[in-house]
Predict the 3D structure of the following.
Amino acid sequence: MRAAKKLGADVVHFPEAALSGYAGTDFESFASFDWDELRQATADVLERARDIGVWVVLGSAHRLSGDHKPHNSLYIVNNLGQLVDRYDKRFCSGSPDGQSGDLAHYSPGDHASVWTINGVRCGSLICYDYRFPELYREYKKQGVDLVFHSFHAGNASADRMTAIAEAIGPEFARLNGAATFTYPGITMPAAMTAAAACNHIWISCPNSSKPQSLWPAFLVRADGVTAGRLRRNSPGVLVTTVDTEQQLYDSTAAWRGRAMAGELHSGALSSDPRSADRTSL
């Protein structure tokens, strides 16, 4: 946080589960988790945010009551050290019976999270949420210009990476230029590029740097162009400028609003019998 502030940052964005660790990957389960320690560590982050004068989007876990599994969350902390919102991962990976993936450890959330920093309307998502483009459309409808999308695609064993590569098919490795030949390595950066360009939204994409990290943290402009990237497996601070007034290429600007309203074509339709007849040449 201090390093980012010294480099001129207004907000510091951390990966998924950065403070708490990621259940099922960084530790086995929450069975013996020290919630008091996490609460104190979180309070320390809020205090530092106030002292430094920087916003923080902090990946962590949020404890629920009773036997309910915690949320996989992003705490939104303003530059006064105040907790102004919390986003809970809505699409947790795993089987419908809740016995695998995220659902074995976490309860899904049910809400979007929207706030404003220096006049820029912001939203947040977490990792597997990227598989559901409806969430980006939802934020676009709410006027969001910048999405803080935290990931944890790291701490992968060599055996896991080999197994994923074999499942994809080694013969396709040369056709998929990616940081790692894994599903996350191929699909996550590509999906973020597409989400940015299709919705004209800037996206900040931090990822765990713990080896093996499946791809390095990066930021995508609203036109789908990557504007900054760190090195895989190496901790670092990426500072980029988000300028929502910058005139960036947007080929869908004229029709996006209509499409979101359910009018799924551009231009004016032709009232022509040859258009209506779809079974003749």
Summary: The beta strands are 11-13, 55-62, 71-77, 83-88, 114-117, 120-126, 146-150, 202-205, 218-220, 226-229. The domain at 2-252 is CATH 3.60.110.10 (Nitrilase/N-carbamoyl-D-aminoacid amidohydrolase). The first strand starts at residue 11 and ends at 13.
